[in-house]
Amino acid sequence: MKDHSLQIANDQTQIEGLMKELQFQTQRCREIERKLNKIQRLHDTMAHNFPDGVIGVLNQEMRYVLIDGKELADMDLTTMSMTGEKRPADQHPRLPDETLNKLKKAFEGESASCEVNIHDKVYKVTAVPLTEKDQSVNEILCVIQNVTKEKRMEEGLVKALEKERELGELKSR
């Protein structure tokens, strides 16, 4: 009978220890979850407020696994957070095949950049590889920035320079 009571007491002590460990692990999981939620919220806020453009992550099938930014509405697109869903190819933000082929170079480990016109606006598209621990590239970061103002200013300066050149030639004659 004494042995049985001793065994019960030992089992109770062991159960209490396991309960304390479980409470500690539960608390630790909650803290990690809070931190992850904060990081997710900051990430979503940062991506959604990406100024004058769009930021996204493309997989090897050239489908977005993440896309957001202030210019999405101008491109007739909607936000897609880090939910793991894939944007179908026919909903790609109007990037021509030529541009997509240039961006695919990022999967080979090199950065790629080009310009594209979307709805009468000029965008600079830059892609950089997102390397894994084993140095493989399964996804690329794609930044699409509206450079319409800069392009129009550049065109204006070129036209002004041409006019100045013409005036110089007229003066020389």
List strands and helices in order, with pairings.
Layout: H1 2-48, E1 53-59, E2 64-68, H2 97-103, E3 112-118, E4 121-131, E5 137-146, H3 148-172
Antiparallel strand pairs: 1-2, 1-5, 3-4, 4-5
What does this structure look like?
The protein is α+β, with helices and mostly antiparallel strands and 173 residues long. 46% of the residues lie in helices and 23% in strands. The chain has a 5-stranded antiparallel β-sheet. It is rod-shaped, with a radius of gyration of 28 Å.
Short description:
The chain is built from three helices and five strands.
| Rg, alpha carbons | 28 Å
Task: Please identify the structural class as seen in this structure.
Answer: alpha+beta
Helix content: 40-55%
- Describe the main β-sheet briefly: 5 strands, antiparallel
* Overall spatial form: rod-shaped
Cα separation of the termini: 124 Å
Sheet with most strands: strand arrangement? 2-1-5-4-3
The chain-level mean pLDDT equals: 84
Question: What is the count of helical runs?
Answer: 3
Order of helices and strands: HEEHEEEH
Enumerate the spans where pLDDT stays under 50 for 5 or more consecutive residues. none
SS strand fraction:
15-25%
Strand segment count: 5
